[in-house]
Design brief:
By secondary structure, the chain is an alpha/beta fold. It folds into 4 domains: about 1-165, Lambda Exonuclease, Chain A; about 180-380 and about 515-555, Rossmann fold; about 390-510, Orthogonal Bundle (Fumarase C, Chain B, domain 1), CATH 1.10.275; about 560-764, Rossmann fold, CATH 3.40.50. The strands form 4 sheets. It has an 8-stranded parallel β-sheet with strand order 10-9-11-8-12-17-7-18, with helices on both faces. The chain has a 7-stranded parallel β-sheet with strand order 21-22-20-23-24-19-25, with helices on both faces. Strands 1, 2, 3, 4, 5 and 6 form a 6-stranded mixed β-sheet that branches.
Length: about 775
């Protein structure tokens, strides 16, 4: 007999889910409201049993099913027992019908049946649905009376439908584990240092540890982390999450997983694509009145999920879209549904770390999952953004004007928040500053945001067709985001006040997200953070892992370092105040390097302004002798692809492309062979001095006595390492790199040179 343990809510949600993707589904603070309302209602029954945990074993066919759940209320009235299920709503109570939400009744009926099984002396039980407004004041109740015999067919049918699906999943999970044991390394021999990498990953997963791994280009870190993670799988519902910041990283991971599937691993792999990129409508608007894929989504999702699951192994973007069209379901939500039943998930960092977007079903509680975090040098900046939030005055003032005569209650709360912005503007004007940072958050400001959030939610539910819905929705989510981030506020945050004319912007700025990143990583079995430029490891240990215990490995490059002609030109200053004086020798150096051998070159600059200045001067110098290319400030995906397509193998001319250091062309691109034969790096990559970077410096100086290193030097040097890494991508590649700046010969910089740079030649 097979033992199956399931929560009642999970079972009924699958069997009885129906309806649209709408605001109620997406409402970000529904859980918060729901909890508060439950408490209000439960407080009315002080002498009764509230939040009653229930567990019971049932048999179905050859299966022993352990069902569990938590009832909201268990009441006794004149010897009559009542199961109470509380549901909060912003819909008008008078329009709610008894069977509007079959899943609501189903959940309560399951509790009722289990109680009747445990209390054989109870002849009947009342199932009560309690719908209430967000304050918990007004209620509407529906009662139905059942005996055990009346509920038995319902329970049996519910369990049978769910088990038919669950057993499909279970067989798939068993096959995943069985074939993981027999899977052989897909490429026969390991690359240089790849075996060491894989062994370290395997041991860390087995021992439930975290790993910081510096794995230079060429080792094969994608397969080197995925393969041992597959081999380390031991539990049915255990998943591998491959998380990265860039689309190219997700593509490489897909290819690696697909290779493992082709070599015998029987598993399901989902790639989650951003909603904006996978949406099938002209406009990303999750409104059933506009989007047919949102209308009736839950009526079709079970069939759609089963179809794709049984037909394919790799659920990539193209397959998700194809099956989404077939079944008329939202492709983004579809991908999330597939991720929940997959063995491996490929996606962006935010699905694990972003407090507004993370997949709660996987990362809210401790789990056996494995997190592979690619290009981890990007995680600090991304996480700072995830844990920051902003509000501006203009949309609030505009909506206040629009609703002044349309809806006075909403206009009133908009006006109250607008007055706070005016108050902050006056303070900035009085201090004669445009930018101000404070340590403490204004609690009154937060209270007014919460009041506006409540008012917006009620208005949107009661006026779903308002012509101003897009503006209201944008403000709704901005307010919610701000409040959510405020819950994390501590001494690693600052409040930033900015003014520009009459406009005011208030931001919560996270300076060190390591505590929250570390907390998320504690909820998985093991986290492997890796990058070719995770250097120095001590810095990333601090800003990513909160100095929590972890393993650290620094692997050497597998490439013959003699394939890279590395030069450090320390006779030219690229400091801002000296750029005009050094312009002539700089463009002369670029010309001498690029005319030496015909081919394709990248020249990296610390800013667009510097790039433009050198580009214009260089263009006059070469007079069509070379083909020039320039990275523009705003480039869409097609423009970026066209830029890279210009780097042709065996080129009959010399191409010199100007790009920004730390931009889209300085990392994550593979120009293999002679598609790129050289790079010139102008400057040391230091972030520009601005108020935000200075706040980081002050924070890290106070916290670790390493303000300049953490805010400027280490992030800048990482950009340089990434740019250097563009030239040698395979064992056969050869090329030249020139690093230009007088600061490279300072001891601080020289100490950061990795082993593969020790042969560098110094020029003046």
């Amino acid at each position: 007999m097979m033992i199956i343990r399931k929560g009642i809510k999970e079972v009924v949600s699958y069997v009885y889910q129906q309806g649209d993707l709408n605001l109620e589904y997406f409402q970000a603070n529904r859980a918060q409201y729901g909890t508060e309302v439950h408490q209000v209602i439960q407080d009315q029954y002080l002498d009764e049993e509230c939040e009653v945990y229930l567990e019971h074993i049932l048999s179905l066919d050859e299966h022993e099913i352990h069902l569990s759940g938590r009832m909201d209320l268990l009441l006794e009235r004149d010897g009559r027992w009542i199961v109470g299920e509380i549901k909060s709503t912003t819909r008008k109570l008078e329009v709610i019908e008894e069977n509007d939400r079959p899943a609501h009744y189903a959940q309560a009926k399951m509790y009722a049946y289990l109680l009747l099984c445990q209390h054989l002396d109870w002849e009947e039980i009342t199932v009560r649905l309690i719908y209430c407004d967000l304050e918990g004041i007004n209620q509407r109740c529906f009662d139905q009376i059942y005996t055990k015999e009346m509920l038995e067919p319902f329970v049996q049918e519910t369990l049978r439908i769910y088990l038919d699906w669950y057993l499909i999943l279970l067989r798939s999970m068993e096959l995943k584990l069985k074939t993981a044991k027999t899977l052989q390394f897909p490429f026969g021999d390991f690359r240089a240092y790849q075996r060491e990498l894989s062994g370290a990953v395997y041991q860390c997963v087995k021992q439930k540890k975290r790993l910081l791994l510096r794995a230079p280009t060429g080792i094969g870190k994608t397969m080197g982390t995925i393969f041992p993670s597959i081999k380390a799988l031991t539990e049915h519902e255990q998943k591998i999450f491959y998380l990265t910041a860039k689309t190219i990283g997700r593509s490489v991971a897909e290819k690696a997983f697909d290779t493992c599937l082709a070599n015998g691993w029987q598993a399901k792999v989902t790639t989650i694509t951003a909603k904006e990129k996978i949406c099938l409508m002209d406009e990303v608007k999750c409104d059933p009145s506009y989007c047919s894929y949102a209308k009736g989504y839950f009526d079709r999702i079970n069939e759609a999920t089963k179809d794709l699951f049984e037909s394919e192994q790799l659920f990539n973007r193209d397959r998700i879209v194809s099956y989404a069209k077939k079944h008329s379901v939202c492709p983004f939500e579809y991908s999330l549904a597939m991720a929940s039943i997959s063995d491996a998930v490929i996606g962006d960092y935010n699905y694990m770390f972003d407090p507004r977007a993370y997949l709660r079903r996987f990362f809210d509680e401790p789990s056996p999952h494995i997190a592979l975090i690619d290009e981890a040098h990007n995680l600090y900046d991304r996480a700072c953004d995830m844990y920051s939030a902003s509000l501006t005055k203009a949309p609030i003032q505009e909506l206040k004007r629009l609703f002044k005569d349309r809806h006075k209650p909403l206009a009133k709360v908009l006006g109250a928040l607008n007055l706070k912005f005016i108050e902050y503007r006056h303070e900035l004007e009085e201090k004669k500053v445009y930018d101000l940072f404070k340590d403490d958050i204004d609690k009154v400001f937060l209270t007014k945001i919460q009041s506006l959030l409540d008012a917006l939610e009620k208005y949107l539910y009661r006026h779903p067709e308002t012509e101003y819905k897009p503006q209201l929705m944008n403000l709704y989510f901005d307010c919610h985001q701000f409040l959510r981030i405020s819950d994390y506020y501590n001494d690693s945050f600052r409040v930033r006040y900015e003014r520009s004319g009459i406009e005011v912007k208030i931001s919560l700025i996270c300076l060190n997200p390591s505590l929250y990143l570390s907390e998320k990583m504690e909820r998985v079995r093991s986290s492997i953070l890796f990058s070719a430029t995770l250097h120095p490891l001590s810095y990333y240990h601090t800003v990513l892992l909160h100095d929590e215990e972890c393993e650290q490995i620094f692997l050497p490059s597998p490439f013959d370092r003699e394939h890279l002609d590395l030069y450090v030109h320390h006779g030219i200053s690229t400091k801002y105040k000296q750029r005009d004086q050094t312009l002539a020798p700089l463009i002369s150096t670029i010309y001498q390097v690029t005319r030496n051998q015909q081919g394709n070159y990248l020249v990296f600059f610390p800013s667009y302004q510097y790039l433009e200045m050198v580009y214009e001067a260089y263009k006059e110098l070469i007079d069509d002798e070379q083909r020039l290319l320039k990275q523009e400030r705003e480039m869409d995906e097609s423009a970026r692809e066209a830029f890279l397509d210009s780097f042709q193998a065996n080129s009959s001319e010399t191409l010199v492309a100007f790009a920004v250091l730390g931009g889209v062309f300085s990392e994550g691109i593979d120009l293999i062979g002679n598609r790129l034969i050289g790079s010139i790096i102008v400057g040391v990559g230091l972030p520009q001095i601005n108020p935000l970077t200075e706040q980081r410096r002050l924070y890290f100086e106070e916290a670790f006595k390493k303000g300049y290193l953490y805010a400027y030097l280490y992030p800048g040097f990482n950009k340089v390492m990434q740019a250097v890494g563009r030239v040698i991508r395979t064992e056969e590649d050869k090329g030249v790199v020139i690093m230009i700046d007088e600061r490279y010969i300072e001891p601080t910089y020289l100490s950061l040179f990795p082993y593969e740079w020790q042969h560098a030649k110094f020029l003046k």
